[in-house]
Design goal:
Lipocalin; about 45% strand; mainly beta; about 190 residues; 8-stranded antiparallel beta barrel; 1 helix
């Protein structure tokens, strides 16, 4: 019975683990593959595409004021000003968060995390996932932590992120820090 539960748990978690690996693969080749899956400018730098469906006006605030719950276009910039990632990020009222990254990898481009509110309009986010090499072999884990604050108009948020890659022995291999800024996507 326990073996069957473990097997079911592994099957359920496999897509999440494989999908989160895409972020790890993109980050592990960050210096060499900084342009993977993104549009490039004429100078060869990554650019954030303009999305025609983003609202151009302030939507009504939900009861209780600004909240991170909803769908967002998020842009991650390293502390030295380089574009690190762009994502569509979905925050759920139960404390779960899902992110679709603009990069391709062996495991896909979906990542999951959890979050908690730490102050008015401020949240702490936590991601963790397995990482894989280019042949699909497990080679470690990643952790992303962020502290984010939703603007009083409920249409943007910003904050700092800390991305860490670890090997199978728990040794830190790489760390990238920077800022995350996001714009709400809504039906308004």
């Amino acid at each position: 019975m326990v073996g069957a539960a473990i097997q079911r748990s592994s099957i359920v978690n496999r897509p999440i683990i494989l999908a989160a690996a895409a972020i790890a693969l993109a980050a592990s080749g960050f210096a060499a593959e900084a342009h993977c899956g993104s549009q490039l400018s004429e100078t060869g730098t990554r650019v954030v595409p303009k999305l025609p469906f983003l609202p151009s006006h302030d939507a009504q605030l939900p009861p209780g004021g600004a909240t991170i719950v909803g769908l967002w276009q998020s842009v991650y910039t390293t502390s030295d000003g380089q574009l690190f990632n762009e994502t569509f990020e979905s925050w759920h009222s139960d404390g779960l968060e899902m992110e679709m990254v603009d990069q391709w990898g062996v495991g896909g481009n979906i990542c999951v995390g959890t979050w908690t509110q730490t102050a008015q309009r401020t949240v702490q986010e936590f991601h963790t996932a397995w990482t894989f090499d280019n042949n699909g072999n497990l080679n470690g884990t990643l952790v992303i932590e962020a502290t984010l604050k939703v603007a009083s108009n409920n249409q943007t948020y910003k904050g700092n992120f800390d991305f860490k890659l670890y090997d199978l022995n728990g040794n830190l291999l790489q760390e990238v820090t920077g800022t995350e800024k996001a714009t709400r996507i809504s039906v308004d």
